[in-house]
Amino acid sequence: MTDKLNIYCFIGSLPSRAVIILTKVLDIPVELNAVNILKGEQNSYWYKKINPVMKVPALAHGYFTLSESRAIMAYLVDTKMPGGCGLYPKDPRKRAKVDERLFFDATTFFPKVSSILQAYMKNKSECDRKQAIEDLMPVLKTMEEFLSETEYFACNEMTIADISMFPTVTTVYDIGIDLSKFPKLISWCQKMQKIPGNDINEAGGKVLLEALGMKPKL
């Protein structure tokens, strides 16, 4: 099997950005293949063969393919850092805590933010948009509580759980949601903005805001 890594992604996609940022943090060579979901390219026949779910991102490593950003991130660390590293620890309990935060992201945080984005993309009423934002507030409170226990979401050092949530948190800020009640989340985000790949996150944020018909914050 060739060692060449192909990532199929759309820079405006939050999960895509998380995977790209991880490749920058790990400093591993990958080939990025753009799949413009705004033009429906994820529904094409050729892409369905790579990812039957027809979402981004997806990974192809030789003949091996993988979808779901969090699974891809875990795979990248395990294959490119076989000796283990703090991003996805080998210790069962430490890894379980990272997984716990990843599952929280996948089942709770990301879906709430996605609902807000969909409310804008589908031109839903102002009432619907406000309700979607209100539904997010308890989740942000929980995240603030996580950060009261440790410096990062799973422990006192950055893990793939942090990288996974990073683009989603910055999107919450970019679309104008007030985070002033969550100082620890703001502090965490400021630390994350210093990691490799933040330029990708900022560029992707602009693409997403343009798709939503919003202007970037100055």
UniProtKB/TrEMBL annotation:
The keyword Transferase applies. Residues 3-84 form the GST N-terminal domain. Pfam families: GST_C (PF00043), GST_N (PF02798). InterPro entries: Glutathione-S-Trfase_C-like, Glutathione-S-Trfase_C_sf, Glutathione_S-Trfase, Glutathione_S-Trfase_N, GST_C, Thioredoxin-like_sf. Residues 91-218 form the GST C-terminal domain. Keywords: Transferase. It catalyses: RX + glutathione = an S-substituted glutathione + a halide anion + H(+). The keyword Transferase applies. Its EC number is 2.5.1.18. It is an enzyme of class 2 (transferase). One of its GO terms (biological process) is glutathione metabolic process. SUPFAM superfamilies: GST C-terminal domain-like (SSF47616), Thioredoxin-like (SSF52833). One of its GO terms (molecular function) is glutathione transferase activity. Gene3D superfamilies: 1.20.1050.10, Glutaredoxin (3.40.30.10). Homodimer. Belongs to the GST superfamily. Theta family. This is glutathione transferase. It comes from Chironomus riparius.
